[in-house]
Design brief:
It is elongated and about 85 Å long. The C terminus is likely disordered. The chain has 13 helices and no strands. α2 runs antiparallel to α3 and α5 packs across α11. With 335 residues, the chain is an all-alpha fold.
């Protein structure tokens, strides 16, 4: 492409589009039709320049024109309750379902790691002594000790809010830091599994593993599932940076990043539920079997939500990304 000839040929159209945009709402019907046609042609010109003869200044000018024209043509759209309902019934569950090949292996391997750490600590007294003095460990694991009183040490409402905030931050870190090739996600995940493994090991060495699991399982099933989903999504985002597939790396990361932001919102709601269970059910006077039943029911409800609603939405083409009309234009890529 001869860039000078191309600019000379089409610059009048770009100037005309700029003039119409400056007039705003004072357009006649014919001028509005002309604006739409010029917007479409200019968007095509921008794609041709980006793919054939990239020029920074010209690209910046046309990008600004296309962005302004697109906002004028499509108009500003406000989020509505219908958007929220569509997100909860279609976008979020579809995104979780589509990323299942990442978070399910993450969940299995992480659980095995926590169990292995717990076994190692529980069967090696020298490792336990490295964690703390015998008196400290007895205080943590005895009946009425720190592991048991932790869940009732604060008022239920404030404790639930604190737990939700901490877990939501951990999930958000997994989602955001995934872009750094997924390495920070592995560190966050390992820290969580290490804490769980230490609790399993110390309480099992004290012969009170059943008590520990009775305290952890009611809220931990749903809570850890949300963390695993966040970690799996973060790892998928990191892999996209390495292998973007048939699209450009920028476009692939943009798509996965937008879906990850939606996942952060959805997982915050899931963690809010697990926080309520941890604040009000785990320390309650309910029998252990009843507390665990509540936790299992919440976990099964989430899995049904993902596999039924999410699977149906994914098969219909939903990806968890924002609507096409709300995305920025992308240049075409060669097959």
């Amino acid at each position: 492409m001869d860039l000078d000839v191309f600019v000379t040929t089409h610059s009048a159209e770009w100037d005309r589009l700029d003039h119409l945009l400056r007039r705003g709402r004072r357009l006649t019907g014919a001028e509005a039709d002309e604006l739409v046609a010029l917007y479409q042609r200019t968007a095509t010109h921008l794609s041709l320049i980006q793919s054939s003869a990239p020029d920074p200044m010209l690209t910046a000018r046309l990008t600004q024109l296309v962005t302004r024209a697109r906002a004028t043509v499509t108009g500003a759209r406000r989020a509505s309750w219908r958007d929220a309902a569509a997100f909860l019934t279609t976008g979020f569950p579809a995104a979780v379902y589509r990323s299942r090949h990442w978070w399910i292996p993450t969940a299995v391997l992480s659980t095995l790691l926590a169990a292995l750490i717990g076994w190692w600590i529980g069967t090696h007294p020298e490792v336990q002594s490295a964690i703390g003095a015998p008196a400290e460990l007895r205080e943590m694991t005895r009946p009425g000790g720190q592991y048991e009183t932790y869940y009732s040490s604060h008022p239920a409402a404030s404790f639930a809010a604190q737990v939700w905030t901490n877990n939501a931050q951990a999930a958000a870190m997994c989602l955001v830091l995934g872009a750094f090739l997924g390495l920070p996600v592995l560190l966050v995940l390992f820290a969580n599994m290490l804490n769980l493994g230490i609790g399993i090991g110390l309480m099992s060495s004290a012969g009170r593993l059943d008590v520990f699991l009775g305290l952890v399982l009611p809220h931990g099933l749903l809570e850890l599932t949300a963390v695993f989903v966040a970690a799996g999504t973060g790892l998928r985002l990191g892999w996209t940076a390495i292998d973007p597939g048939p699209t450009t790396r920028r476009a692939a990361l943009a798509q996965q990043g937008r879906a990850a932001i939606g996942m952060a919102v959805g997982l915050a709601l899931v963690l809010f539920v697990s926080g309520l269970i941890e604040g009000f059910v785990t320390p309650s006077g309910l029998p252990t079997w009843a507390r665990i039943t509540i936790g299992v029911a919440a976990e099964l409800a989430f899995l049904v939500y993902v596999y039924v609603l999410g699977g149906r939405a994914a098969r219909a083409g939903a990806t968890g990304d924002v609507a096409e009309t709300d995305r920025t234009a992308e240049q075409p890529t060669a097959a």
